[in-house]
Amino acid sequence: MASVIAGQVSDNLLMSSFEDLLPEHLLDVIAKLQNPQSFDAIDVCVRVEALQQMGALKDVSSAENVKPTLLQLAKLNLLWIPKEPLVQMSAGLKSSTLWSGVGESVLLALRDEGFPTPDKVIASLQPEHSIPQYLAMETRVMTYLEGFLWATSKAELRRFLIFCTALDIVQPFEKVKVCFNASHGLARAPSATTCSSTLTLSRLYVSQEELASDLRAVINSAQVHQFDVL
After folding, report:
1. Are 133 and 210 within one domain?
2. DSSP 170
3. Is 136 found in the same domain as 92?
4. CB of 124 within 8 A of CB of 170?
């Protein structure tokens, strides 16, 4: 089963794929931990918290131990954790005549169907426009949002979904509703209600760069990542 899911994967590819899933603040800590000159400069609490957020159960004693530890975490998060539910699903399907004939290829196809890509995420958006006089402004902000999603990284795309829906997959029959308000200044930060998959944006953005900056601030925040881990 593991070979079906992952194939023969090199350590470098595993590490690269794992790093794509991590937020910027963890990548910064990892880079410093792997450098012997900066390892001791990292506060122990910061180091332990970063490792725990990635799934580690214990601290590392030196910079030389960081890469092997990260490789083990990559295997855990990319190979074994995704494999386990598929194994359980496969066993469950075999016990029910309603699912007779459904094999691993179908399960993998379902998993791939929900894998987030810019076009899938954009297709899942459903703007909830207010009154006609604001339509042009809100349509412009939707264009900025789509531009951000096309240009963003795989990790940020996943975190955008988590911010809006609490899930890191695209739900085929669930739309992400995009609502608008007139907030500005410090109150302009995007907000989301995950139980209803609703994203709320200000209609007063005048550039994609402004919207992208505010979105990155909320989806990459430590609070959002902590909620994701819990």
Report:
1. yes
2. -
3. no
4. yes
Q: Which residues does 34 contact at the CB level (< 8 Å), separation at least 6?
A: 63, 66, 67
Residue at 222: amino acid letter: A
Q: Phi, psi (5° rounding) for residue 150?
A: -70, -35
User: Band of the pLDDT at 3, cuts 50, 70, 90?
Assistant: very low
Q: What is the pLDDT of residue 93?
A: 55
- How far is C-alpha 185 from the chain's CA centre? 27
Q: What tens digit of pLDDT does each residue of 25-73 get?
A: 888 888 888 888 888 888 888 888 888 887 777 777 788 888 888 888 8
Q: How many helices (H) and strands (E) does the chain have?
A: 13, 4
Domain final position from 60, 90, 112: 112
Count CA within 13 A, CB hemisphere, residue 82.
20
CA distances from 162 to 3, 53, 188, 219 (A): 28, 16, 20, 8
The angle formed by the CA atoms of residues 129, 196 and 52, to the nearest 5 degrees, is 125
Extract the tokens encoding 124.
Answer: 């899942």
Structure tokens at 184: 């500005």
Q: Clarify whether residues 132 and 68 are in a common domain.
A: no
Choice between 43 and 224, residue whose per-residue pLDDT is larger: 43
Per the listing, tokens 């139980």 go with 195
Structural domains in the chain (count): 2
- Residue 162, domain extent: 118-229
Provide the whole-model pTM.
0.56
Q: Kindly state whether residues 131 and 219 are assigned to the same domain.
A: yes
The rounded distance, in Å, linking the Cα atoms of 42 and 33 is 7
